[in-house]
Structure formats: structure tokens, C-alpha cells
Amino acid sequence: MDLCAPGNRRRRCAVVGALIESYAGPMARVIVIGAGAGGMAAAARLRVKGHDVTLLEQGERYGGKLARYERDGFVFDTGPSLLTLPAVYRDLFLKTGGPLEDAVDIQPLDTAFSYRFSDDTSLELPGTDPGRIAQAMGEQLGGTAAHDWRDLMARAADVWRITRQPFIQSPLDGAGTLLRLGLTTHPSAVRAVAPFTTLRRLGQHHLRDPRQVQILDRYATYQGSDPRRAPAALMTVPYVEQAFGAWHLGGGLATLADALAARCRERGVDMRLGVDVRRITTNSAGVTGVETADGERMAADIVVANTDAEHLYASMVDDPRGRKPLRTLRRATPSLAGFVLMLAVRGRTPGLRHHNVWFPSNYDAEFDAIFDGRPVDDPTIYVCSPDDPRMRPDSDHESWFVLVNAPRHGPIDWDAIRESYADHVLEVMARRGFDVRDRLLWREIRTPADLERGVRTPGGSIYGTSSNGIRAAFLRPANISPVPGLYLVGGSSHPGGGLPLVGISAEIVADSIGRARPSPSA
Q1: CA distances from 187 to 162, 190, 191, 236 (A)
Q2: Contact 401, 429 (CB under 8 A)
Q3: Residue 474 clears pLDDT 70, i.e. is over it
Q4: Which of 165, 200, 439, 481 is deepest in the core (most CB within 10 A)?
Q5: Rounded to an integer, what distance in angstroms lies between the CA atom of residue 77 and that of residue 499?
Q6: Spatial separation of the C-alpha atoms in residues 277 and 66, rounded to whole Å
């Protein structure tokens, strides 16, 4: 949608134009590397602050992991399939030209998730309101499930309030972040955050039903982590999802990438596809620009890298000031990866919902295998099958996006086992009560090796580093690098992976550059 088109949007466009022209600080030449959601969000924010922004993407499309696959009328989101905390993108779109609702078809999900457990019991949860969700748990699981979940989410709400501004929406300061938590908050607040407790132990403390513990455990995988090692602070992930709602975008989540690209163009970002940046050039003062694979040198005062942080510091930055974050990254545990099937299914499936999670009998065995570098024999299976007419050829077919957690490429040669493991996943699905093998029109496979090749994330780790370890969530690569003028945005840097956190990282970067007020290079 062109916000500058004639009609009632003309005034809005004029306001944004005035904002750009009236920016009081010096205009910097900014190069953004990578047109993922974080890179485009940062580019749009920086442009309306008055900077000269060029966005370079090595691929032939915008979106990075926020992508789609289309074939024969079937449409699949191949990256994020759920939008939570939409306020992050509402703020972005309003501040860069107009409402989010003008750019995408945002739809609340009344039923957010359908869970199926190894004892053949199931649970369906509403899309919003922790109270309603706790009530649904009590009605379907029985016992103390409603009381226990309500108590846990009340604690998670306190942790969200305590951590949101100083730690999630602010630049990271390494171990100093943990120190500030201890020095600036009341002891009761520190106890609520439980910085030395794992998510698993927190769940076992609050939840008497092991099925609820499994549900809580699953949110560690939103950060690519093992719930037995991830910090209890990740309790805020289900709280945010339940308090602010679970949302779908008509046509798929990848329409957000389309909207972000359109907003960048409307604001005057110079967007270039097929430009492969191989090196960030620096001198003693900091960043001087970039060099492409074709040997072209482009000058810049600031570089914003929407790339995997390990790839950035290992392969793109020669500056010795980048060695410390690289050493830290190499000490961290990489996040888990994912094995994906996209299935074109004939007919409709009773009991299938938009988001479906089918748990194994031994969840611990899944994490043991993943972080030991072995394919999971009996994996948790996630299926996203939106009841969206724009994502299927007609009402008699279904598009199934199937994801199982998997180890990185490297310990496993995914290219060698892709077909046999796809057959195995379909067999496991059949054992769980969803056998679609005789209804398949075709299947497409995406492995960690494919993700590594497509977006240059080492091993296909979805989120860069995991949050395994008590301090890990606070020690992700900072948005402001040690190299002056170099900034990091996206899921492998602070505050983490997932669309909301990636959007927050873009806001942190844009605000940090605004405070730095760099002078243009000679």
C-alpha cells in the first residue's frame, strides 16, 4: 500500500516527510547489511530520523527468515508463523508513516494452540487472556491446573514488568546487566526473576500437572534452548503471548516482510538485492564502509549488521576490537535448529487447528539428542495449518508446515539423510494419530543445511546462540559493538529471536545511533 498515494493518506505522508526534513542531528551515511525483519525495521526507523540509508541484501528477496514458499496454490510461512506483542510493529509503522493495520491484515486467533500429549489427552487454549487460558486448562486438565497456571502467570507478569524496560528494551551491557539487576531492584523482585533457577525447575515448583510442565518447557525452544538449562526468566514468553494475544496475518506472516520492504521504499531507503557484502572496512576511528563480493567499496559512517553475529565477527570484521565478542560467542552453546516439511494435503483433517503441538513421551530425550548432535527419534511435532483461503488452493486442501527441533548441520550430514528423516517424521505423525501419507500431493523439505546456505547462519541454528546457562540470556551479543559505528540487529543479538524481540532490537539500534549523533566522514 502506497502511503503517499492521493487521498486521505496524503497528510500522513507529509507529516513523515516533515519529520525527515526537520531532523536536528547531523545526517549519517548508514549501510544496513541484510534485509531481514530487523534490518528493514532499523532502516525505516533510521530513515525517518534523517539518515541516508542504503540496505544491501545478498539474496534475491527481502525478509531473511521471514519468508514464504508457494507452489500450486499452497502457501507456507517458512519462518515465523505466529505474531505476538504486535505493539512493537504498531509502534514501528506509526512512527514511519501509518498504522500497521493499513499495511497487513492482522487477525486475532481465538484458539491459539492445540496440544496433544503422549497419554492421548489433549488441550485447546484461547488466543489471549491468561485468566481465560488458566480456566481452559482447569476445565480440560482438571486438578489444580487452573490455579497453578494462574499463579505462574502472575509471577511472569511481575518479571515482565521488572525486566522489560531496563533489560529487554535497553542496550545490553554484558555482565553489567546482571549486576544492575541486583543493585537497582528490590530483593523481592530479584527473587521473582529467579536468575539462578532454570525454566524446568520453575515449572516443577509451580505446576503439579506434568503436562503443564511440558507446555512451559516448550517456550525454551522459542530461544532455541533446553528448558533444563534455560533461565526461569523465559517464563515471560508465554506471558507475553497470552497477555497480548496470538495473531495471524492474512496471507501468512511473510506479508509483514512485504509491508516492511514497502515502508522502506516509501521512506526513501535505497534498497538493493543481490549485493553480497563480504567485509566491513574499518580504521582506528571505527567503521569506514563495506566491501562487496564484486570488489565494490561503499563508504559509510555507520554499518548495521542484520546477520548472524558469529558469522559477522568471524568472517566479516577483521578489526581486533571484534575479537572479544567472537570469543564469547564461541564459548556459548549454539541454538537448536529445525527440520521442516511443507506438505500439500488433500482433504480436511478433523481436529486440526491453526497451531498444533504433539508431544513425545520422553521430552528430555529430545533435548539430549539435539544438544548431543543426534537426530531426534521421537520428536515433538509442531504443525501450522492456517484456515486461510489465501494459503491454500481451495477449501478441500490444507497447507501443513511441519517443524521438529533438530541439531545443527555439521555433527549431522542433513543432506544425506533428508529424505529418510522426512519419512521418519511422517511415520511419527501417523503414530500420533495424524497419518496424511495417503493424502499427500507433494512434500518439500528444508533442513538445517538449507538454512545455513540460505541465510548464512552457522549450522542452521535458528537463533544464533541458545539461552542455555543461567547467564546466557543476559550475555547475547550486544547491539552496540566494540567497533565504533558498527551495530547489530536481529535474532542472534540482544534481546533475542522471534519477531517481537527482533523489532525491539531495531528500535534499540535506531535510538542508540540517534544518541551517538555521528559526524559524517570526510
Answers
A1: 12, 5, 6, 19
A2: no
A3: no
A4: 481
A5: 13
A6: 20
CA 408 to chain centroid, in Å, comes to 17
- Interval 321-333: pLDDT, tens: 999 999 988 888 8
In this prediction the pTM is 0.91
Lowest-pLDDT choice from 67-71, 168-172, 242-246: 168-172
The three-class DSSP label of residue 62 is: coil
Distances (CA, A) of 248 to 38, 371, 388, 502: 19, 31, 9, 18
CB atoms within 10 A of CB 477: 25
Q: Which residue from 465, 500, 502 is spatially nearest to 237, judged by alpha carbons? A: 500
The SS3 call for residue 449 is helix
Question: Is the per-residue pLDDT at 23 higher than 50?
Answer: no
**Residue 283: which H helix or E strand, with range?**
strand 277-283
Model confidence over 141-178: pLDDT tens digits? Answer: 999 999 999 999 999 999 999 888 887 888 876 555 55
- What is the pLDDT at residue 173? 63
Cell matching residue 191: 527473587
Residue 86 preceded by cis peptide, ω within 30? no
The residue behind cell 485468566 is 131
Q: What is the DSSP letter of 409?
A: B
Close Cβ partners of 416 (under 8 Å, ≥ 6 residues apart): none
The b/e string for 41-58 (b: 16+ C-beta within 10 A; e otherwise) is bbbbbbbbbbbbbbbbbb
Give the distance from CA 16 to its chain's centroid: 28
Looking at the DSSP bridge assignments, the partners of residue 30 are 53, 302
Asked if 32 and 304 count as a contact pair (C-beta separation under 8 A), the reply is yes
